[in-house]
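Notes, p. 3: input format for complexes.
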Amino acid sequence: MKQKNAVTVDDLTVAYNYKPVLWDIDLKIPEGVLMAIVGPNGAGKSTLIKSILGIIEPIAGSVSVFGKPYEKQRKEVAYVPQKGSVDWDFPTTALDVVMMGTYGSLGWIKRPGKSEKKQALEALEKVGMLAFQNRQISQLSGGQQQRVFLARALVQNASVYFMDEPFQGVDATTEIAIINILKELRKAGKTVIVVHHDLQTVPEYFDWVTFLNVKKIATGPIKEIFNDDNLTKTYGINYKVSVQG
Ligand code: ADP
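Output follows (245 residues plus adenosine-5'-diphosphate):
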């Protein structure tokens, strides 16, 4: 059976100040995979996600989500940005932030009601943040903010999830909590795309991987392409990871 592609990227080139940071990327991400995007600092990983989400305008190429332009598929897509990339100066509680995630499913002018609040509280419980529901988001630690963002993504009930380094600077317990949620999402048939830094955990956490360094080096199932050859091509040094199992 031919698998549907959740995300298709064609000939994507992105530049900042005329300097290309992504070059002619072709990428097909099959529905239902839990995929890591790996590559060195500055490889263009965040830029790839941002251009798929229409936050950055490419100089060439196109992107589609389930065969349609992203603008038509917003409801299908949830995004957890990189920790620290959001300015939390305005006063808002953890619960408010998660409630915002439900807005996409509400009609014009409709306010979130009891059922949205219930969903938001359930999501906060799932990420272990129920006790912090009334805390100002600015007064949470980075890892806690990350969990709240994840809860917000969960209530969006999207089909495709993008997360930019969700494990950055979180403790071991939070990391396990997050990966369990990601695996749950995959079980529910969602497509999850994660910028990930720790190469050692790639085979344990993910089933699909894309190697990126300005160009796409390789993409596919972990078992087939997570190897020293692709790591060396991506990181430019003789990279060896001990892959267990
Ligand atoms: P990664 O996520 O792989 O670390 P990024 O996508 O953040 O890489 O960045 C890719 C390249 O683009 C880097 O060289 C970075 O310095 C540059 N870059 C990122 N954002 C901007 C920006 N807003 N303006 C100019 N250059 C940028």
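The helical segments are 45-52, 94-100, 114-126, 142-155, 172-187, 202-205, 222-225, 228-235.
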